[in-house]
Amino acid sequence: METETRYVYIGRNIDLPDVRLNKSGIYFGEKIEEIRKKYPLLEKLLIKADDLPFAEKNEILLEQLTDELLESVKGENDGV
């Protein structure tokens, strides 16, 4: 039996068109896999729960990545 990968979101709370991501929230399932593919920057902000103890916590980098993600979403919505 294959278990689902669980991810912990390490950025600040944000609302994307598809989902609200909360800092330290745990996400799993098909929906989060689709969202990870749609927003590639989430690869850096959604850490596998098993890897979290090994992830370096750099608040400035996390803030910058979250800002980049929000800008990319804004750019997509402006083009519609």
TrEMBL record:
Superkingdom assignment: Bacteria
Protein name: Uncharacterized protein
Species of the source: Leptotrichia trevisanii
